Amino acid sequence: MKKNHSIIALCLILIFVVLACNLPNPQDTGPAVIPPTSTPLPPSATPAMLATATETPSPTPEPPTPTKEIFHSLIPSSSIKMGKLILDVVSADTAAEKRAPYGDSYDINRFERPFLQDMTYVADLDIASFNLGYDEKFFYVSIELVGTDPNNDIGIDYAVEFDIDADGFGDRVIVARPPYSPNWSVDNVQVLEDTNRDTGGLSGERAEAPLPGDGYDTVIFDGGRGAEDDPDLAWVRVNAGDKATVQFAFKRSFAGTKFMYGVLADGGPRSVADLDYVDRFTEEEAGSPVRGQPNYPLKALYGVDNVCREVFGFTGTQQEPQRCSPIK
To answer: 234, 225, 167, 231: which is closest to 197 by C-alpha?
Structure first.
């Protein structure tokens, strides 16, 4: 009997313990409650919409700087009287043999190199003749090429060099770069000058490489767009006639009344900063277009044809450096 009472007491104790475990904890506050945001989001808002709403707006792009419009008050004539024709050596007849016939005299800065480095002939590099004419406002220098396409795909620069004081050192150059138009244009025309007298090396004529130098170093005209440019100073056009495959026009005030001038076709180095080339490249580096010469074929100095320099406005001594021989 006493044993039964003990069992009953033990059962009552267990019941009280179980009930005590299920009583609410005074520190139990229940599930956490998230307070509403100050601005509730619409049910349809998505993460992408939220990202877009917080992105910083892109700055408004700056409008492009407008190209300066050029106004011309003086345009060269379309009909020009040709001056005295000066002939140059051409390589058309020996082109199939991959050689120049003669006329390339490296020691005196005379090039007959209308060839690529593999000796492929380029007729649009080959100068046949040049001449100078003028009217009241402009001088005109015309270059006759063997070829008829100055816009050849290789890219050819044409130039007129001026020796103002007849000492063999180039003083100024007008250089034109493709593309070319049959109409007079100042586009892609630059005029540069040599401010430190280094275009002719030491002697003004002889090959003296390797010498340092920066050739024609200062731009004084750049397509008529510079702040100080005379927009009418220098022009170029192409295919103006049989003896004018490339034709330059420049104001008479530009070169004065006495000067020497020569022309250049350049599809190789195309760097007026390296003129004269005979003072920058040694003859071994340059190569030769004359078969049988030790430096044949062409190497670093290819695709170049120039001429002797003709005089205008004076007689001189006939011994000026790089001067054309007088016609007997």
So the answer is: 167
